[in-house]
Amino acid sequence: MRIFALAILSTLTAAELSAAPLRCELSADGAPPQRVELYTSEGCSSCPPADRWLSGLKPADQRMLLAFHVDYWDDLGWPDRFADARFSQRQRELAARARSRTVYTPEIAVDGREFRGWRQGLPEPAATAGPPLTARIRIDSGVEAEWMSVEGYPAGAKAHLAITEDGLYTQVRAGENRGRRLRHDHVVRAFAQPAPLSQPLRVQLPSDLNHRQARLNLWVEDAQGQTLQALSAALGACNSEAE
């Protein structure tokens, strides 16, 4: 899978981004990257090993890495500042596709399916080429993605947009991980409501987001959650001023 960006890395601060909207075009073709999702929580004592495992993986053409912090641990002693009820719902939908009523942490999903063997390594990424994907990106106080071509995608396919951030730390003061300093990478900090390819996607960027540690992730899933095409790039890949 190849990604093309009509820009280079940006060193703009969040304040500068607000003052000068940016845009670029990102494209991908060939085999899509393997989408690896971790469902985790700072309130879960068995989650830090999985967090460290995910931190050890590096974004590349072959993989897209997403850590979704669920909220169903928040009332059990420690509210996770990265948790979101939508992430818990996403995990429940993943379970429903597998005809399961059980959700748990930590859980790894690969291309929309539970993968229990992650401790022994990940399966090989798919080699089958997906339809090409081209998106026009605009960045100001948020990120907007508009699809420039939707040919080759089946009816019911939905587009997704997530902003992830690396190098995050939390000193946990209560709950099962009390007294531990946790590191998180690939944390989903902003997530757009999935939508048909006919609609643009937009998310608001968190005010405390470190843009130099953030990545923009775009992918298209079929009705079974399988990745049809995807791309992941540093958020700073857009540094051309919008017209």
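Second entry:
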Amino acid sequence: MPLERTLVVVKPDGVRRGLVGEVISRFERKGFRLKALKMTWMTREQAEQFYEVHRGKPFYEELVKFVTSGPVVAMILEGESAISVARIMIGVTDGRKAQPGTIRGDYSLSILENIVHASDSEESFYREYKVLFSDLEVVSDY
């Protein structure tokens, strides 16, 4: 299995609820390695760039407003099949429908305030991580 990297973002609701450590812990226990980690408050410009793929959809403005409503914790994780495994671990977008045992299934009852974001493809990872990290902030190896 190839090593991949993925971006995971604990959204403002997860930060407000004190779930950052829980989210990081789940990924570390699974075997992922942290390659970058930071707390930041996304600007509107960053949020628009981050959610560019949803521009024009009815929920776009609500997404941008929500993700800029408080700090987020962003991390780059590395591991085997990181993108698909992280997506399984977080669960489906709507927390009301997410399986118990997933992050969203255990902590969310909303489609908007669903605790966490994870890149859905390699292309998305490369587009998204550059919104939140410079290449100098990413650890190459340790």
